[in-house]
Automatic annotation (TrEMBL):
This is Cysteine dioxygenase. Belongs to the cysteine dioxygenase family. Fe cation binds at residues 85, 87, 136. InterPro entries: CDO_1, RmlC-like_jellyroll, RmlC_Cupin_sf. The lineage of its organism: Bacteria, Pseudomonadati, Pseudomonadota, Betaproteobacteria, Burkholderiales. GO terms for molecular function: ferrous iron binding; oxidoreductase activity, acting on single donors with incorporation of molecular oxygen, incorporation of two atoms of oxygen. Gene3D superfamilies: Jelly Rolls. It comes from the Bacteria. Keywords: Dioxygenase, Iron, Metal-binding, Oxidoreductase. It comes from Candidimonas nitroreducens.
Length: 189
């Protein structure tokens, strides 16, 4: 296992946070670093790749001490999906294993309209920026196996107050996602 790939990601992304200002610029600068991380599926420890029979899992892999970014392993069991939600901070999704579909929603007052869908294959990246419209629903595109994507957000996403939307009524509810595990991988060993 080459956990040094995760360490390299953390070191490079920390440098970006130290030298680049602004959400869009930080997202754009981090994108190629995440692309390099998800180009190889040989580094994610088993403990952070485990699906749950009922719920998609969000395993924190690292959080910057100043909470300028975090990296999370999302593990989707067959048929699992998110509610319609936003993020409130910039984000990047890198497909590591399997496949997932993201369907965008446009919000016009109280009305939500489903927009384009994109299905990610391993190595591909999706960008999320609130000012560009980041409301979406994500589902495992595979009916018979788990899928895993690696997410980077411009904050400690487990603590961010954000929103879920009822696509039928447009009703908005606040939520805080938290994380699925109490432990993080040790890439210093
Ligand atoms: Fe999302």
């Amino acid at each position: 296992m080459t956990l040094s790939r995760l360490k390299d990601f953390v070191q490079e992304t920390t440098r970006i946070m130290d030298t680049v200002d602004g959400d869009r610029a930080r997202m754009n600068a981090t994108r190629p670093v995440l692309e390099r991380l998800v180009a190889h599926d040989d580094w994610l420890p088993e403990a952070f790749a485990q699906p749950h029979p009922q719920f998609y899992q969000q395993y924190l892999l690292y959080c910057d001490p100043q909470e300028r970014f975090c990296i999370v392993s999302f593990v989707w069991g067959p048929g699992q999906r998110t509610p319609v939600h936003d993020h409130m901070v910039w984000g990047l999704v890198g497909m590591l294993r399997g496949s997932e579909t993201s369907t965008r929603y446009a919000r016009d007052g109280q009305v939500l309209r489903a927009g384009a869908s994109a299905t990610l294959q391993p190595g591909q990246i999706e960008c999320l920026l609130p000012e560009d419209g980041d409301i979406h629903v994500v589902n495992n595109a595979l009916a018979d196996q788990a899928s895993i994507s690696i997410h980077v957000y411009g904050a400690n996403i487990g603590k961010v107050r954000r929103h879920v939307f009822d696509p039928g009524t447009g009703a908005v509810k606040e939520f805080i996602s938290g994380f699925s595990s109490e432990v993080l991988p040790n890439f210093w060993a």
